[in-house]
Amino acid sequence: MSTDASNIPEGETGTEEKKLSKKELNKLAKQMKKAELKKNSAQGQAENQAAEEEEDVSEGKYGSYGLIQSSERKTINFTLVNKLDESFDGKEVWIRGRLHTSRIKGKTCFVVIRQQISTIQVAAFAGKDNVSKQMIKFIEKVSKESIVDVAGIIKKPHEKIASCTQQDVELHLQQFFIVSAAEPRLPLQIEDASRAADESSELSVVNLDTRLDNRVLDLRTATNQGIFKIQAGICEEFRNALTKAGFLEIHTPKIISAASEGGANVFEVTYFKRMAYLAQSPQLYKQMAIAGDFGKVFTIGSVFRAEDSNTHRHMTEFIGLDLEMAFNFHYHEVVETIGELLIGIFKHLQKNYNDEIETVRRQYPSEPFIFNEKPLILHFAEGVKLLREAGIQQGDEDDLSTANEKMLGKIVREKYQTDFYIF
Questions:
Q1: Could you read off the pLDDT of 296-328 as tens digits, one per residue?
Q2: Domains of the chain
Q3: Angle at alpha carbon of residue 178, lines to 176 and 183, rounded to 5°
């Protein structure tokens, strides 16, 4: 006896699909997602394999030099990064620097190369300018702080590159070689060590002890590069200005038989079975030179003070810039010479080291230093009068307190538009 299925009421057929539970639906969804990921992964591996098998149009234009042992001498003319500007537009250049940062996504590559305080953006696009995907993948694996040689064409960007010092140009990559690879993991990041301390910021900064433990890395920051260049600029102008003024540079002993200044402690050292001391000052030897008819002398050198002080103004070792001169009739001749010398140093720094000064100020904010063309010389009585006019008590013959000295500086800045004056 057969049964006609068309005569069975709806909902009572024996072939009805079983309804899935919520747990079973979730399990099925997970299985489908896993299968999709596996498919995508297989597809990605296939694409990577295809890229590797694809002809490398950049072959021979990237890689690592390996260990340089002076076995060959390359004739490459490198250009300094700080010299690159719009006048180089369209020109091919080579630069050597450290890989500061890199941003690579797919076929697009942006790298920042740092050379002391100067930085420039390097751009590369797979499929253009004979840049291959293999070349982009190679650059992606290069660790920060590695020294690299980069060649390319200088071009003007559509917009200024705010993150680099060379904002009006960028380098379109043609060749990329590793000179010396850095460790992938560094004890500190240059970006962190260059960041201004801001309590409201959540970005990390580097503590002093970490900086000192890794001083080589810390010295690479643009701020430290700028500080050392400014120091060199000060010594340069100090030497040049005094030499032009008829001064003679002398070199004085740094190990002496007795303390040269009674008010400062000395470091004791053994000197061939007897005691000697590190020089606190070249004062004695400068005076000897003047008495020996040298007329005008100066020296630049280390000074040692064994002062156990907890203030930031005291240092046990520093570089002293000292001058000594005989005057004809009045000690103001010396004062005026010192004033003109310092103004000359300020002008020299402002003209030749402005980039370094601005670099330091970005990490350690401060107001611009202002000075007059001619040094301002205030007599003590004039300073006392200025303080009294501001409502501050100051005796005619009393020494200035630290607070009154700071206040006088503010008054002079407002009245005479200068941060430098001789008092």
A1: 999 999 999 888 877 777 788 999 999 999 999
A2: 76-180 (2.40.50.140), 190-220 (no CATH), 224-348 (3.30.930.10), 370-423 (no CATH)
A3: 135
